[in-house]
């Protein structure tokens, strides 16, 4: 673990960050959304325009053999409750396409506290685009967690 310090250097060999959906939402996303400080190494902030302007292989470094990365995305242009099912990347070099419906993440009492949408990356343009191995899970909080002044709905 060259160049790593602090808590990362103290982790045992073979340790992997593999949180469940519930852990991601309750311990990371909710804390981030409600301005509770997170350690710097938890996740990288990335603007949605940057995320959707480049193919996924240019957004990550394949260091340490890791195959999963976590980002906090900000600057989403969607209205709360409205989700795009296709996101064009760059000038049409590829696109992210949803792989089904948004799924609810529920606690043991059956209350929804998070939502998850899965996307697959396609290289090229439709109809000749090729499915790639890149997958992205996008998590968000239900609208009841958003401050009232920030909730917008398109008609």
Notes on the structure:
With 155 residues, the protein is an alpha+beta fold. It has one domain: NAC domain (Metal Binding Protein, Guanine Nucleotide Exchange Factor, Chain A), CATH 2.170.150. Helix content is 14%, strand content 28%. The protein is built from three helices and seven strands. Strands 3, 4, 5, 6 and 7 form a five-stranded antiparallel sheet that branches. Strands 1-2 form a two-stranded parallel ribbon. A hairpin with a 4-residue loop joins strand 3 and strand 4. The model is unreliable at 1-5 and 149-155 (pLDDT under 50).
Reconstruct the topology from this structure.
Elements: H1 7-10, H2 21-33, E1 44-47, H3 48-51, E2 71-74, E3 86-89, E4 94-98, E5 103-106, E6 112-123, E7 130-140
Keywords: DNA-binding, Nucleus, Transcription, Transcription regulation
InterPro entries: NAC-dom, NAC_dom_sf
GO molecular function: DNA binding
What can be said about this structure in brief?
The chain has 155 residues and is an alpha+beta fold.
Strand content: 25-35%
How many helices in DSSP terms?
Answer: 3
CATH superfamily: NAC domain
Question: Roughly what is the average pLDDT, rounded to an integer?
Answer: 78
Q: In the CATH hierarchy, what is the class?
A: Mainly Beta
Class by SSE composition: alpha+beta
Largest sheet: 5 strands, antiparallel
Radius of gyration: 17 Å
Could you say which overall geometry the principal axes of the C-alpha atoms support? globular
Q: Unreliable runs, pLDDT <50, ≥5 residues? A: 1-5, 149-155
Order of helices and strands: HHEHEEEEEE
Helix content: 10-25%
CATH-derived architecture: Beta Complex
- CATH topology name, in short, is Metal Binding Protein, Guanine Nucleotide Exchange Factor, Chain A
Number of domains: 1
Termini Cα gap: 51 Å
């Amino acid at each position: 673990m060259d160049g790593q310090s602090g808590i990362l250097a103290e982790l045992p060999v073979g340790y992997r960050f593999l949180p469940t959906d519930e852990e991601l939402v309750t311990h990371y996303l909710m804390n981030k959304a409600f301005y509770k400080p997170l350690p710097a190494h938890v996740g990288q902030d990335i603007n949605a325009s940057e995320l959707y302007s480049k193919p996924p292989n240019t957004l990550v470094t394949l260091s340490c053999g890791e195959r999963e990365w976590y980002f906090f995305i900000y600057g989403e242009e969607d209205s709360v409750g409205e989700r795009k099912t296709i996101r064009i990347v760059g000038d049409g070099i590829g696109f992210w396409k949803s792989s089904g419906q948004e799924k609810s993440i529920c606690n043991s009492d059956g209350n929804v506290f998070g939502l998850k949408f899965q996307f697959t990356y396609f290289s090229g343009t439709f109809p000749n685009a090729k499915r790639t191995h890149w997958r992205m899970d996008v998590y968000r909080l239900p609208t009841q967690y958003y401050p009232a002044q920030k909730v917008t709905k398109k008609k």
